[in-house]
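Folds abound. Consider this:
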Amino acid sequence: SSSSCICLSMSSAAEWECPRQPSKPLPKPGELVLQDFRSGATKKAAKQRDPKQPIKLVQWNIERGYKLKEVIEELKAIDGDVLSLQEIDIHCERSQWEDTGTEIAKALGLQYAFLCEFEELWSPIRDGDAQGGGVHGNAIMSKFDLYDLECVHHQYHPIDWEAPDHPLCKKEPRHGKRVTLAAKVKTPAGPLLMYSAHFEVFCGMIARMRQYADLVLHARNTSAAGGPKHQAILGDLNTQANSLARLSSNYCTDRMRWRSLGWFEAEVWDQYILKCIEDPAMPSKTNEWLASQGVDAATCRAILNPGFADPWHPRHDVTIDLKKYRWLGFSLMTGKLDWMLLRNMKVVNKAMGNDLYDKSDHKWLMADVLLE
């Protein structure tokens, strides 16, 4: 059962029992959970709000909620309307056994959608700051009503996290796979389709582009079926195939490892993915650059940009700068990993925070938007 916390050692047939049992059954990988912690006053204010008032969108990877109290205080200060959060832990030893998403939603008084990606197996093989015992996933929180929650499955998974012999799986044993949370938001200005994405990091950029293509296709199909035309793909897309990451056997694992030398991965995305725009007058158009990297034709068509734009600079707006890879004033593991890909919206204000990386290893992004 998902709540038993009896966890397998990946190096033997022995079982390790989690030292602490959850008070209630935990979500399983791929399972959606919806909770509402809004007060009556919050719901009333949301319904009476001027539809011409900008909607404040927030993107943040909270790094498992290691510093949960500080994360909550920061999010209170930002006061976002709709939040996309990654790395939500529930009942993991590394995050003090907290249900981090529920604690955030309660403190902020928001409706809360959670999608479980992984069951994080408790194992003595794990380092203390990675110790499991619970589950892990991504969230969308909102002052407005959330509805039509979906688990968007990815067609391509560069790592099989169920493979017992994979060195990464041995180090952090888990069940599950990367999936993306999608939800519709009933804003005063009209419906909004929101995504909270967290792509695979232990691969190359081409694999992440393939995962992104799944979301573009889902968004395109949703609007074609009469769904919201206002769409926001927010998330930690793990676009870090640059800097010192090129030297690791776990990162930059495809042909772009050296071909993109001098570029940030985010710059490659900006130049070759986002600037390749779909054209209704050319139904046979494809992303020729991606095809030249050996990607299948269906993905190269699906990834054509239907109008998503990110308001941040792909090189200068860095969202991660890992402290342990700083040397003599140089940042050796850095990049723009976090994105706010917006469709049919106008950004009227934006901000970035957590500059000291003292609350999470990622910066947060905020954008005030008008639905066009």
